[in-house]
Task: structure prediction
Amino acid sequence: MKKFNVGGQAVIEGVMLRSPHYYAVSVRIPHGKIKTKTAKLKSQSKFFKLPFVRGMVSLVDMLVLGIQTLIWSANQQATKKEEKINASEIFWTLLISIGFALLFFVALPYIFTNLLGFAEESRPVLFNLIDAAIKIALFLAYLAFISTMKDVKILFQYHGAEHKSVYCHESGKKLTVANVNSFSTKHPRCGTSFIFIVFVFSVLIFSLLPLAVIALFPDFNSLSFGIRKGILFPLRLLMIPIIAGFSYEILKLSAKHQRNIFIKLIVVPGLWLQHITTKQPTKKQIEVALASMKAVLGKEAKVI
Result:
């Protein structure tokens, strides 16, 4: 079978996998059977496929698709109609989650680094190294905390099943439970690795930001502390999509040049993080991941 670029995510009691033209999501429903849904992805213009642009577009696409498939998977576990998630619940949950992420992983480290007395304008590299270290510490603490929850442990097992099935497809081996189970749960193109790359790359970009502002406005440091932060912090938020775009390209590059020493240095910390975010799946969980893989590859085969 021809190899396709396949990636995805774990969902509630299942796995979603995405290929160039289709996606498939499979879940094990309460009575034990596997249920699969497949659909065609929307085609994109050539502009959205350009390097760096495609990273930002892909992130938005994956976020939207990820939420849609998470909702679908959750609703398959509902035994009663009133237990299903409605649009209002989705909206408020998403809004609160985004707000929490921005507060906890962006605003809080920035405020704390300022309180420690490090000057962003005069020592930007040191400031952003401290800021990134606090972000990583908070992120690790968050992952360690949620990994103790039963439902999250199961989600992380399906995450491991997703990686194993992708590895098996990339190796060209037959898609069987035994073959899939022989592969690692850690994959260099994982979203966990992407997050770490974003942390590292943000140190460089955010360090250059105050220098660029001062170069454009020489009197910037004469402004009050509140005004300076009122300008720099929103600019940091505006830079996040650009950082994400560059980080996506580095992640894609890492998959093609895994033996390169520089690439290894970038990828290895993300693989370490996957000791938390992926767990060894059961054979039944691998069966669900295989159902998604076979479904999406079957659809792709009809495109050729």
